[in-house]
Amino acid sequence: MRRIIMLCCAVWLMSVEEHEVGGDISLLTRYEQNGAKYYDKEGKAITDMLAFFKQQGWTTMRVRLFVDPSQASDEDKGQGVCQDLEYVKALGARIKAAGFKLMLDFHYSDSWADPAKQYTPAAWASLTDAQLYDQIYTYTKDCLEAMVAANARPDFIQTGNEISYGMLWGAVGTGTNSFKRCFSGSDANWNRFTTLLKNAGKACREVCPNAKIILHTERLSNAGVLTNFYNKMKTAQVDYDIIGTSYYSYYHGNLDQLHSSLTVLERLYPDKDIMVVEAGYFHAWQPGDVAYDLSATYPITDAGQKAFTEAMIATLKKHERVTGLFWWWPEANEYGLDWSTKRVTDGWYNAGLWDNSTGRAMNALYVLRDFLPPALQGDVNADGVVDVSDVNILINIILGRERAEDYAGRANVNGDAAVDVSDVNALINIVMGGSQG
Which residue, among 166, 171, 154, 153, has the nearest Cα to 68 in the 3D structure? Predict the structure, then answer.
């Protein structure tokens, strides 16, 4: 122990570049309320899901927000559309109280907003474009003020979800030819779209000035669409901080495609960080109509999902500007529910991180923390810096003066089963610039 303490005195202060890892847990409240049973991979019951995520090194949670999900179709409600402001305030407050950062995902729709549909909320359907500019500002500001008042201040804000082709196209039932969409090779509707984004961003800066604004697209399969989108944002001087993207290999291509598109984004927009704000891979029952099938390389099994996740992380870590990775719907788990009266969705989602048939965690969940830089894994007190204070905490834990559980898994630096001297040695190696072995 004396040797460890002496080494502590020689440790240099080391700042940590912030990286985020986590998931979109927008349905967690419903699963918990309906009685879903969650277990770790060994079969031990999980009694506090947020604490469990903390133990796995997750740093940030994402939650979606719909304008009025009561207006959604029964089919969409059966897919998990329920997140109104009251729901999101409550879940967001829990997330913040548990020590996570919060990413708030504005859909600006009553139901799913994605590249295939960006329907204007029913309550906004009769508004002119000029009125929509005011409405998106007022709505965004009101929601953010309500979140702040509920102790759920967002740290990251998405002003739109998968908005590669614009948003607020028109009300449900509008003819396709009348949609106000934005496409490459055309200037139509881009000024309208960027004005909407500017007004949404203005509200974000006013209410949450320290939050990072994310513009979320999903065309990693087509770098031309991506570059056209972000070039339009630059030309219009839209204020934002982070390029957000979705990556599902079965929609967007293999890992070489991911690497290629990220390379283009880094080269053309070197001042922007990039986050993969949605990712996933099946562990069972991959649909037969996927655009890209990687199952020959990464089988649709627990082991295959883990192998894909490891390979995806290795690809992302080749890119210095990629600072965030989020699994979509990790909490999907219908195990333990009465299917006829208590099911959360009308069909199993088998690309989450729990097995719907057993309630056990998938092995991919345990490797997501590997996206974080090794130094961040040594930030025991979560102050953004790895230094002597972190080592001292570990020593106090080993001596029985502090409790490891009070540090939400961060004290287990080397990821084994115990907090002991090996974690102190690993932390010293990190701070001194060596490996974490």
Answer: 171
